[in-house]
């Protein structure tokens, strides 16, 4: 119950905001906090809409796709950097 809940963390959807505001009104000892990762993701998504940034993102997607579409080159690049390349569309930033 409310005596053992200290904080609720949700994404920033309107339905979550409304539900948590109502809950906090009824139980003022409970704190609601929007998810920091979701908030940052939304900010980056908006930053990605700037013309200069969008142009860079488009180029980065093309480069990454090129490496993923050429298996030998992709494997060589992974060996050189010591890990996996980041695939485009892994976050909402690219949607």
TrEMBL record:
**InterPro entries linked to this entry:** DUF659, RNaseH-like_sf
Protein's name in the database: DUF659 domain-containing protein
Species this chain originates from: Aegilops tauschii subsp. strangulata (Goatgrass)
Where does the record place the DUF659 domain? 1-63
């Amino acid at each position: 119950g409310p005596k053992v809940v200290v904080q609720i963390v949700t994404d920033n959807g309107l339905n979550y905001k409304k539900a948590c505001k109502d809950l906090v009104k009824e139980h003022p000892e409970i704190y609601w906090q929007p998810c920091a990762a979701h908030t940052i993701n939304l900010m980056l998504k908006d930053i990605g809409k700037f013309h200069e940034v969008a142009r860079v993102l488009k180029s980065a997607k093309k480069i990454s796709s090129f490496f993923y579409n050429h298996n030998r080159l992709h494997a060589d690049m992974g060996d050189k950097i010591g890990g996996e390349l980041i695939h485009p569309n892994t976050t909402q930033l690219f949607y």
